Amino acid sequence: MTDTPAPHYPFLDLGRVNQPFMGDLQQAALRVVRSGRYIGGEEVERLESELAALHQAPFAVAVANGLDALRLSLRAAVITGRLREGDKVMVPANTYIASILAITDAGLAPLLVDPDEHTMCLTGEIVAGHITPDVKALMPVHLYGRVAWDTLMAETAMRHDLWVIEDGAQSIGATAAVPGLYSSRRSAALGHAGALSFYPTKNVGALGDAGAVITHDPELARTVRALANYGCDRRYHNILQGFNSRLDPIQAAMLRVKLHYLESINADRFALATAYHNTIDNPRVTKPVMSGSVTDCVWHQYVIGCEHRDELRAYLAAHGVETDIHYPIPPHMQPCYCDLPHGSLPITESLAGRIISLPITPGCTSVSDAAAISQIINQFNP
Ligand SMILES: *Cc1c(COP(=O)(O)O)cnc(C)c1O
Fold it and tell me: Which residues lie with the beta carbon below 6 Å from any ligand 1 atom?
């Protein structure tokens, strides 16, 4: 008898994720190398048009990464007078630190609020419950790919004249409906500005850093574009003290290949989430709220909860299942934010100790892998 090696389930293997696109990526890379245009130009302009069309928004501005998409939008909001330094920006406390870094970088004050325990996102009710006269902006974070937007949130933002910037780093392609206003609008195009990240692990990942701002506001688009290119409105004419946050054409070309497959990438993620949802059946494990359609949530992560999280994680590792935690330490508990004022955040702090992300990337994890991982989870009995 020969021993068959125990199966191994990697959390993420980007080489495998990009394998199906290899031919197209090579062609696109060659096109850029041969073009002789290595900053800006047609490749970046085309990506911007394709992103604007996808979001049914008039403007998409490509920038160097997702953090810059957020921070340049917020800086542009201050420069154009939409916000003033020191204004409060309501933001979920259980986000990736980039959301908070962007707010403080622009001289604004994050108002950290606990998310809904079940969806792990803000809801309209939560937002309405935290409005004060100092709150001038709202940053919904579509965490794990779930759109944090509902009728009450849209109404609350309108009633209180909040400037809405979405952190859509994890939610490309996801949509929301507001009955009476729109039946389907893409996340990142719901508010005044929306930030996308194309970090390699995101649903649509570049082969390096990349990001974009989506907006309906021409002055904001112009200001972000100027800020990202040394603050100039034309060559050697600087209207702002800007930055260098341009997107490379080589990354734009890679992204144009992958953007083409957005709907199929997100459909594959939905199938993986469905497999987990239908197969995990362990009373010690809480599952994320299942989405009704392929676009309510684009399943950037499938995050379960468990009181015995560290034991479950070690057990899964022993059974060949790699997992991750998004995120183990909330921003307000990070050393860099030891002085950040905040109220009590029991849900955020409890989630950080309970959550585990399971493998959910198409090309790396198959539906049968997800079913097998679920069966392993079902056997967990600490
Ligand atoms: C990835 C991410 C960002 C930052 O994007 P980068 O491209 O890595 O700078 C911001 N917010 C959230 C929620 C993210 O997941």
Answer: 65-67, 95-96, 98-99, 141, 167, 169-170, 197, 199, 209, 211
